[in-house]
Amino acid sequence: MKTELHVPSDLKFLNIVEEWLLGCLKLELGQSVDWSRQSSRLRLALVEAYSNVVRHAHKDQPNAPVIIRLELKDRDLALEVWDRGDGYDVSDYFAPNPTDKQEGGYGWLIMNRLMDKVEYELKVGGGNCLKLEASIPEITNNTSS
Question: Hey, which end of the chain has fewer CB within 10 Å, N or C?
């Protein structure tokens, strides 16, 4: 399954973005997934990616659309978040030290912890692409009382 969403660069669309992703996945995977666990992980990764585009990449171009592409092969999810900003050189990223009480800079760390693979490519076909990949596990029958 492949699908794509074009959405304005405005945080008021965040709920629509989340519901689109989970709705598409639930339609394809049905009740074979522990949605209480997986939806939290996927929502947080997508919220981080989308809000970074709105707050950073498109801060000076609020009319630029964010393009989100979803591909699901069996249980392997690939999510691409495209922006038209200046881009960010991830080689300059250093994970924040929690003892420093730093306010920002946790997004890359969060996405890498939640997803199996995270890549960011600068200026691909006129835009920047953040690619998030994860395998969605099947429910295991754990019959503990």
Answer: C
